[in-house]
Amino acid sequence: MASNFHGFLIFFFFIFMFFNYMTFLEAALVPAMYVFGDSLVDVGNNNYLNFSAAKANFYPNGIDFPTGKPTGRFCNGKNPADFLAEKVGLASASSYLSIIENRSHTYNINIGVNFASGGATIIPQPNQIFVTSISLSKQVVYYNSIYEALVRDLGVNKAKAHASKSLYLIEIGSNDIFAYFASPNLDKIYTPPQYLNLMSQHFEKQLKCYLWQRLYENGARKLVVIGVGVIGCTPAMRYQNFTEGCNSEMNRWAFVFNQHLTSMLKKLKDELFGFHFSYFDGFSIMLSTIHKPTSFGFSEVKVACCGSGRLKAEVACIPKVSYCNNRDKHLFWDKYHPTQQAHHFFSDLIFNGPQTYTFPINVQTLIAI
Ligand SMILES: *[C@@H]1O[C@H](CO)[C@@H](O)[C@H](O)[C@H]1NC(C)=O
Ligand SMILES: *[C@@H]1O[C@H](CO)[C@@H](O)[C@H](O)[C@H]1NC(C)=O
């Protein structure tokens, strides 16, 4: 097993050198992008999880993907991991488990690797859907194995230089909030403020002690963070309200968590020399879109595109369920996830949006540092 893995890494090396050259030819803005998080940026890791209930590798997911086929993305097409890669001139990074499980295929780890997993949470959750996902801490363990491979192939100095110019994208937190609201007993264990504090503490610990500390030591400097969106307005949550209004309590939680998140990032910047971040306030732009859909090119912000029943949220987006034709007009693809069009719109802002939505700088500026 160990020597197999070694052979596999040596194999990587040649692929790596080849794509190094290719990347040079294409003049990408950054050498690589590494992605951590949940279903909003998962590009297929969960396809390889035998016991996960959080899967999207079936039609009509992927209907608007270039191949027209399901990929494991929880979307009709591309997600922010894809769009941001495009923006910086890279191909989308492969999912970590696809690399590990299909060793005979050629993969380009040099452009980054995607560790994100649908259902991933910050706090370990007892609920089956979440527990079978790749947790954030496991994603970090996986990253370390990739980084070790880079060090073996390039040497420490070049691996560090590679890391220092690369982007690290993290998007996580929604599932922790969903889990609290869905759980029959979490509210008996924690009051809402206690749980929110726990989320923030866990995230801070993971970010500082495991994730970012490790990444920073290994040269990483540029972090892109996507805040939690207006998750109380997802069709799944509106469905639970007989007026079909948003779950305002849940939205308040998302808002407060995002505040914790940004102050944590500011603190980190003060503590770590040379560390820079770009935070995307997905919450405000999503809220603006919900209030004035037509100003942003949408016409349907309540009803999901894929699913059936009231708000298309009664039955989830499963095989053979109906889906809409005007997908570019819908904010939501299924009862939890935005459409490709929404992701495209948000990703443009992540990359070079104004300070209204990016704090303290956008990704384009982050790259130029
Ligand atoms: C899933 O099951 C297959 C076949 O039993 C096994 O080879 C593979 O390693 C498993 N994958 C994971 C991620 O556990
Ligand atoms: C249901 O929606 C209404 C708005 O239509 C909102 O005022 C109310 O807070 C919502 N209920 C819950 C439980 O979130």
How would you describe this protein?
It is a single chain. The mean pLDDT is about 90. The chain is about 45% helix and about 5% strand. It has a 5-stranded mixed β-sheet with strand order 1-4-5-6-7. The protein has a two-stranded parallel ribbon with strand order 2-3. The protein has helices at about 1-25, 80-85, 95-100, 130, 135-155, 155-165, 175-180, 185-190, 190-215, 235-240, 250-270, 280-290, 340-350, 365-369, and strands spanning about 35, 95, 115, 165-170, 220-225, 275-280, 360. Helix 3 (about 95-100) links the parallel strand 2 and strand 3 (about 115). The chain contains 14 helices and 7 strands. Helix 5 (about 135-155) packs across helix 6 (about 155-165), helix 5 (about 135-155) runs parallel beside helix 9 (about 190-215) and helix 9 (about 190-215) packs parallel to helix 11 (about 250-270). The chain starts with a helix and ends with a helix. It folds into 2 domains: about 1-30; about 30-369, 3-Layer(aba) Sandwich (Rossmann fold). With about 375 residues, the chain is an alpha/beta fold. Bound molecules: 2-acetamido-2-deoxy-beta-D-glucopyranose (NAG) (2 copies).
